[in-house]
Amino acid sequence: MSPYDDRHRRFLLGSLPDAEADDLAARLLADGDELEAIETAEAELIDAYLRGELDETERQQVGARILGNARGRERVAFARALLERTAALTLDATLSCSCGIQDRTAS
Amino acid sequence: MIGQRDHGQEPWRTVLPLLDPNPERAGAKYELIRSRLVRLFELQGHAAAADLADRTIDRVADKLSKGETVRSDDVYRYFAGVARMLALEVTREERRVQRAAQASRLHDDVPEERAAHERRFIALDKCLGRLTPDNRELVLEYYRDNVGRHIDARKTLSERLGLSLNALCIRVHRIRKQLEGCVHMRLESARAS
Asked: How far is the CA of A31 from the CAs of A27, A77, B2, B76, B85, in angstroms?
């Protein structure tokens, strides 16, 4: 029941065999923890999509299954904003750190 | 009161006893199954998830009223199987609608998209500001831009916090959901005003 469980990822991409998909869906219906784990896996998958870490087939699957509906597009838009914001803050921190080093070097 | 549908229909009467012999517990279980069916269809990328959840329950009721039997330890799997078959039926039509929608989005106003992105950024900053300092720091650290090595960075972070990677991931996801809800609410209220 880990968000890094490959079955969750394959379920979200629609590439899990029917019997396994039914098993996982049944657990999702029965168990709130399983639902939370798969929602976490969805967030990780969206991040991987935005970071360009998916192969072409996976990108197409995300395009069809996540970007194909309003809720999915909203989630992707939020993830893009979150990743861009944290990247900007990382850059700020790096620059201020570099400046700090330069300042110390200069003095 | 169960859901927002008319459950006085005869097929519906066949579903409750399947869920639990106690009517009250069966009603509660129904609500839970319905809400999770909605999430299941959303996770599979279906636009009309609530409608599909209701149709799944109707189909289960219909099958039961026609004499099909389900073992009590197999109820969730039964619902899952019916949901999968229904999803297969509607997927083709949904993909056609999606393609049409994507084609129309090609002509969307790019400045308007940029403006929407900017509004989301502003809302995100406000929502980040409402987190506790510990949660804010955790989220920023987790999503820090460690190009090509974020898994290693997260392992280091989980070790520093004394958590398993899985526990860290779930904890951050809970904060992310909170943030996402906050951003959504702010954007919706801005649209309404």
From this structure: 6, 28, 20, 10, 21
Test the B interface: residue of A38, A40, A61 with most B CBs within 10 Å:
A40
Q: Kindly report, residue by residue over B95-132, the tens digit of the pLDDT.
A: 776 666 665 555 556 777 788 889 999 999 999 999 99
Mean pLDDT along residues B179-191: 93
Q: Treating both helix axes as pointing N-terminal to C-terminal, what angle do A70-106 and A32-50 enclose, rounded to 10 degrees? A: 60
CB contact under 8 Å between B117 and A80, yes or no, is yes
A54 in contact with B at a CB cutoff of 8 Å? no
ipTM above 0.85, yes or no: no
Mention every residue, 6+ apart, whose C-beta is less than 8 A from residue A76. Answer: A46, A49, A50, A66, A67
Question: pTM for the full model?
Answer: 0.81
> How far apart, in whole angstroms, are the C-alpha atoms of residue B180 and residue A59?
23
Size of interface A-B (CB pairs under 8 A): 122
Least Cα separation, residue B170 to chain A (angstroms) = 7
